[in-house]
Amino acid sequence: MSVAHLTVRQAERADLLAVVRIERACFSDPWPHDAFERLLDEPAFLVAEREGAVVGFVVADRTPNHGRDIGHVKDLAVHPDARGEGIGRTLLRSALARLRATGVAVVRLEVREGNDPARSLYADEGFEPVRRVGGYYRDGEDALVLVVDLAAWAGRAGSGGGDGVESR
């Protein structure tokens, strides 16, 4: 399958069980159901659906900041059986476009320092590291904080390929 058979849309309450299942399949320290429930109305809580099944999701929000609003990609995951098909990249790009349409100028995210596939995806999309946060994750691993300017991102001519990896 390819992303051509994929639908990306706003998450709905009915999607939450599938989202939580993907979260648990992807992360050793998954978010609880109520965390997703609280974020359901965020502008870029999107799901990727294929043949009626949710195969991935992204959660991103927006914080007003004196005319230069900041977006935050909080969570991005693709079901392990659906990785390597560009779903992660499609979700990320959809979230960035949605945030930009709501007036966001800059987007940040945190990623495990050792998550090379996710770091590669983010670098391909123009994210740049701005700092390291020691012991950010519960298991003690450091996080890298990455940032992208959405005007520059939108002006880029086509990014390279990707593998739809999970990350947050």
From TrEMBL:
PROSITE patterns registered for this protein in UniProt: GNAT
GO MF terms, alphabetically ordered: N-acetyltransferase activity
Presence of the UniProt keyword Electron transport in the record: no
Keywords noted in UniProt: Acyltransferase, Transferase
Annotated ranges, domain N-acetyltransferase: 6-151
CDD domains per UniProt: NAT_SF
Pfam families: Acetyltransf_1
Keyword rRNA-binding: no
Protein name stated in the entry: Ribosomal-protein-alanine N-acetyltransferase
